[in-house]
Structure formats: C-alpha cells, structure tokens
Design a protein that fits this description.
6 helices, mainly alpha, 119 residues, 2 domains
C-alpha cells in the first residue's frame, strides 16, 4: 500500500497507520455521515437505472465512492502525521516528488542525483 504520493509503506508502518486511524475515529465518523446522507442510495440508483433503461455506473452515482475515498485519504494523512516514522515518510515523499519532476523535465542527471547515482 502506498500513501498515494509515491511512498510504499512497510508492513510495520501500515500497521501503525491503521492503528492511528482507528484510534482517531475520523474515518469512522466521516463514513457514518456519508452513509446517513445516502440512506436511499440503492433505491435511487435502481430507480435511475430503470428510468434510463441503460447501465449507470454505481461507483459514480451520487459520488459515494469518491466521497468515501476522500474521507479515507483525509484520515490517512492525519494519521500519517502522527506516525513514528512521519519524518521518514515525508522525506521519501519529497524524494519521489523530485524524481517525478525531473522525469517530466527529461533530466536524467538530476534523477540520478536524487537516486544517489553519480556518473
């Protein structure tokens, strides 16, 4: 699992992240709110599908999946800041951003410098 910004979590980091997310309760509260706001999701989705006579992507209907993903990202970022390895994760993220930027520029010398490969 990555943090969504190019950093692959170690199993220990992932476990700590999930623990922190669970303790904060932010994701659970957001998910409950989304569910309460979308109580008629299945009914309205089926009615819309029946009225159009065509396939409607349930992942896009009422933006439910997007709202859940945003809530998950928000909770993950908050927990990430409280991780024991927060500074290490931030450093890896910055490194990845630099690699991405230099790759977009097509500058392999700078990519190699970030990677620690000097010629």
């Amino acid at each position: 699992m990555t943090n969504g910004r190019g950093v692959e979590y170690t199993p220990a980091q992932r476990a700590e992240l999930y623990e922190l997310m669970g303790k904060s309760g932010q994701f659970a509260r957001d998910l409950t709110r989304i569910m309460n706001e979308s109580k008629d999701f299945v009914k309205s989705y089926r009615e819309a599908q029946a009225s159009t006579g065509t396939y409607i992507d349930h992942r896009k209907w009422q933006s439910i999946h997007n709202r859940i993903n945003v809530a998950l990202m928000r909770a993950r970022r908050a927990a990430e800041a409280d991780m024991t390895d927060a500074a290490e994760v931030q450093m890896q993220q910055t490194r990845q951003q630099m690699i991405d930027e230099y790759t977009e520029r097509g500058d392999t010398n700078l990519v190699n410098q970030v990677l620690g490969i000097y010629k």
